[in-house]
């Protein structure tokens, strides 16, 4: 039981990270109907930018808690801004010229962009795994049991609390942006009918750019969380994380923001529980099989609307 | 990379100086953000944590190169009279390109074929060039196989390399456990790969275009992970080695009595086996091509193409879309299986390393850059890609970067690939080639 609760906590943490990445997929897919295959790599870039800023600041666990919080906010802002620039530039250069082209064209450039980003980071930052000393340490014991097998403790670390809190805050903020602001209205309008939206005076190109920027910023947050949580990154983390986050977006119902978060949690839990009870080697197989199963039996996802095919 | 495409036009014509300045300033700013962050600061693992290596000069040069590159583009290619739309390639050049293709197109195919046949016997052909030729032909065959799935049936398959892996492992394992020879395993590998195509395809082929793409990608990864972790059976990351070499229909390539050289009264040379492998893959590739061309004329091939154009119309005309998609998937997979078992026998060693996603992306890139559905386009694209890879062999580090950039740029320049005209397989009165730009295809749903 304690073991299960512990895995549950770990799964929710991992799921939060996937959920943050998944939002980028879901928003872009919702608005222009393309899978931004390079989104996972934007997440990777975000993690690297965070690493660079953390190293530049010389941040370590020994600093006082106040300094750590201030510094992490600075890291977060830098990573979000620079990743957004990456996202914006990619949209401008690789996707916009192909708008209105046939459907597979942007997906193929997206694969190209993904290869470019991975190799660019590999060349500029080196191919080796980058380790980071833990910055946020400590935790709280929430359950404790002593029996003949020894003591078993369920812990939630400060890092996990941070990840879950940041995710909840960002989710709320972004949901409000989509639901309440004129930008969000423009996005929803473009999602429904791009041509009509532009006839009504919405700058469609700018709205799409903003969507990419928002997605990239969230991916950067996820990148920082991943870096702090796992403590190691390399240029390849974006691929697997990207596919899993996409699975999460599909599972939740593509185009739906709460769906992406829910999907992320489900995928995170499946992966963690699978690793805990079955085998670590096949955890990716579990996540990928989940994608196939969901698409076959529930193509519209948990919270999505069923798609109507039109002639 | 860091170029903003915000270019305005002056009222009379050409770009205003101020606008160029603004544009370049934005470019420089974006460049500073992108390259200034990742090139100027490099994290290095040092004792007691990470340290930063500063490389401001390199970053500055890259940013300067990008800004100057953009300036040149603005002053030359993108310069246009006000009011016209910007195209990446001037229209005149595009028409000339099409005319050139039309003129050379007819003579091109026989010349290429003839060259491929005599290539091993040309005086300058050495071991290195032959190996390169075999590699290119392997990709031509894979490209043609994938062309059935992507080009004809319009199904985007990002996990094609899985079937290639199935073929390679089928041969390697059958040879290892049952001692079967290459010539028995070749058809078996194709059949097994086709079976896998059906097993994987059956549940997922109801999906729409890009969902299908991601699921096939996931399947490709699943197969690779299983190969990597099923240590007892597949050797895991160590792979399988000592895979038997092919024989000349039962006559082994060995020195002395009973060998190939002895049988035909030639002097023994290790190049004989390479030349044989070259012709083997050439024949396999041509079989793939021939089967594809014939299939296009059969009802099933027509159904594939109809499916690519409009799935809903297909269904309303009473075609069983699931079985049509499955046949396309299985046929494509079968050829990948053949190519896989050829790969295994040529290398003598296989491991999951050879079957990563990047391989699928490469094959897909060949099909798309060649022009989906065009057979000769696949050949041109394979030569360009694999040849290009060889040219950049010196710059080992940079070649994947260049590959990715080329993929993006060619897609933007010619979204429909190098050969974008379509040969109709059925016509009333006379044959006209259809420009692919005229048809809205590739929807895959």
TrEMBL record, chain A:
Transmembrane segments in this chain: where?
A: 12-35, 42-59, 65-90, 102-121, 161-183, 204-229, 285-303
Q: What keyword terms does UniProt attach to this protein?
A: Amino-acid transport, Cell inner membrane, Cell membrane, Membrane, Transmembrane, Transmembrane helix, Transport
Q: Which domain of life is it from?
A: Bacteria
Q: Where in the cell is it found?
A: Cell membrane
Q: What is its main location?
A: membrane
**Has UniProt tagged this entry with the keyword Transport?**
yes
- The answer, when asked if Cell inner membrane is one of the entry's keywords, is yes
CDD domains xref list: TM_PBP1_LivH_like (cd06582)
User: Matching InterPro entries, A to Z?
Assistant: ABC_transp_permease, BCAA_transport_permease
- Kindly give the membrane topology term recorded for this protein: Multi-pass membrane protein
| Family in the record | Belongs to the binding-protein-dependent transport system permease family. LivHM subfamily.
Query: What is the name of this protein?
Result: Branched-chain amino acid ABC transporter permease LivH
Automatic annotation (TrEMBL), chain B:
Q: Which UniProt keywords apply?
A: Cell membrane, Membrane, Transmembrane, Transmembrane helix
What compartments host this protein? Cell membrane
Task: List where the protein spans the membrane.
Answer: 59-79, 100-122, 128-148, 155-174, 180-204, 211-231, 275-296, 317-343, 363-386, 398-415
Topology of this chain in the membrane: Multi-pass membrane protein
InterPro entries, A to Z: ABC_transp_permease (IPR001851), LivM-like (IPR043428)
| NCBIfam families recorded | PRK11301.1 (NF008450)
Q: What is this protein called?
A: High-affinity branched-chain amino acid ABC transporter permease LivM
Species source reads Hoeflea poritis
């Amino acid at each position: 039981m304690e073991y299960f609760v512990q895995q549950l906590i770990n799964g929710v943490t991992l799921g939060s990270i996937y959920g943050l990445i998944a939002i980028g997929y879901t928003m872009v897919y919702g608005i222009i109907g393309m899978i931004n295959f390079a989104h996972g790599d934007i997440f990777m870039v975000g993690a690297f930018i965070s690493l660079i800023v953390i190293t530049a600041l010389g941040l370590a666990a020994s600093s006082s808690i106040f300094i750590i919080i201030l510094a992490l906010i600075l890291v977060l802002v830098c990573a979000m801004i620079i990743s957004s620039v990456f996202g914006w530039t990619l949209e401008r250069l690789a996707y916009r010229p192909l708008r209105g082209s046939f459907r597979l064209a942007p997906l193929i450039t997206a694969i190209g962009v993904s290869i470019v980003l991975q190799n660019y980071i590999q060349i500029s930052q080196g191919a080796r795994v980058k380790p980071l000393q833990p910055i946020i340490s400590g935790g709280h014991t929430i359950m404790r049991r002593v029996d003949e097998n020894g003591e078993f403790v369920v812990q939630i670390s400060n890092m996990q609390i941070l990840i879950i809190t940041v995710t909840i805050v960002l989710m709320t903020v972004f949901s409000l942006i989509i639901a309440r602001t004129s930008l969000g209205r423009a996005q929803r309008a473009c999602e429904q009918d791009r041509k009509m939206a532009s006839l009504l005076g919405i700058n469609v190109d700018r709205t799409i750019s903003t969507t990419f920027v928002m997605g990239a910023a969230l991916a950067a947050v996820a990148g920082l969380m991943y870096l702090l949580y796992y403590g190691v990154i390399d240029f390849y983390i974006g691929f697997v994380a990207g596919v899993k986050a996409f699975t999460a977006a599909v599972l939740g119902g593509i185009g739906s923001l709460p769906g992406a978060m829910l999907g992320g949690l489900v995928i995170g839990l499946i992966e963690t529980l699978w690793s805990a009870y079955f085998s670590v080697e096949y955890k990716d197989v579990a996540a990928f099989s989940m994608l196939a199963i969901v698409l076959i039996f529930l193509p519209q996802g948990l919270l999505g609307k069923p798609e109507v095919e039109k002639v | 990379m860091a170029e903003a495409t915000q270019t305005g036009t002056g009222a009379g014509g050409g770009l205003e100086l101020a606008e160029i300045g603004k544009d370049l300033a934005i470019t420089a700013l974006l460049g500073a953000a992108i390259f200034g962050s990742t090139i100027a600061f490099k994290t290095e693992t040092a004792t007691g944590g990470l340290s930063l290596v500063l490389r401001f000069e390199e970053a500055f040069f890259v940013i300067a190169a990008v800004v100057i590159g953009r300036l040149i583009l603005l002053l030359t290619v993108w310069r246009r009279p006000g009011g016209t739309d910007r195209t990446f390639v001037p229209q005149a050049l595009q028409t000339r390109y099409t005319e050139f293709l039309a003129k050379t197109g007819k003579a091109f195919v026989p010349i290429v074929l003839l060259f491929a046949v005599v290539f091993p016997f040309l005086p300058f052909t050495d071991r290195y060039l032959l190996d390169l030729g075999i590699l290119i032909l392997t990709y031509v065959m894979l490209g043609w196989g994938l062309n059935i799935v992507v080009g004809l049936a319009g199904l985007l398959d990002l996990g094609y390399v899985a079937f290639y892996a199935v073929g390679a492992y089928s041969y390697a394992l059958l040879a290892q456990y049952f001692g079967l020879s290459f010539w028995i395993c070749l058809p078996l590998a194709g059949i097994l790969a086709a079976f896998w195509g059906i097993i994987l395809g059956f549940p997922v082929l109801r999906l729409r275009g890009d969902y299908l793409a991601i699921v096939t990608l996931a399947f490709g990864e699943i197969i690779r992970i299983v190969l990597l972790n099923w240590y007892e059976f597949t050797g895991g990351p160590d792979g399988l080695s000592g895979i038997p070499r092919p024989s000349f229909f039962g006559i082994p390539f060995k020195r002395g009595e009973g060998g190939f050289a002895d049988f035909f009264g030639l002097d023994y040379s290790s190049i004989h086996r390479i030349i044989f492998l070259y012709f083997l893959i050439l024949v396999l590739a041509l079989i793939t091509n021939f089967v594809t061309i014939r299939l296009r004329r059969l009802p099933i091939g027509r159904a594939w193409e109809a499916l690519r154009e409009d799935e809903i119309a297909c269904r309303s005309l009473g075609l069983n879309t699931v079985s049509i998609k499955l046949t396309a998937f299985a046929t494509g997979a079968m050829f990948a299986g053949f190519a896989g078992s050829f790969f295994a026998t040529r290398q003598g060693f296989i491991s999951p390393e050879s079957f990563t996603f990047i391989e699928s992306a490469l094959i897909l890139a060949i099909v798309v850059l060649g022009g989906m559905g065009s057979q000769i386009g696949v050949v041109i694209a394979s030569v360009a890609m694999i040849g290009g890879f060889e040219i950049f062999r010196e710059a080992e580090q940079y070649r994947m970067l260049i590959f990715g950039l080329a993929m993006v740029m060619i897609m933007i320049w010619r979204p429909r690939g190098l050969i974008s005209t379509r040969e109709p397989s059925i016509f009333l009165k006379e044959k006209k080639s259809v420009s692919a730009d005229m048809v809205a295809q590739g929807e895959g749903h």
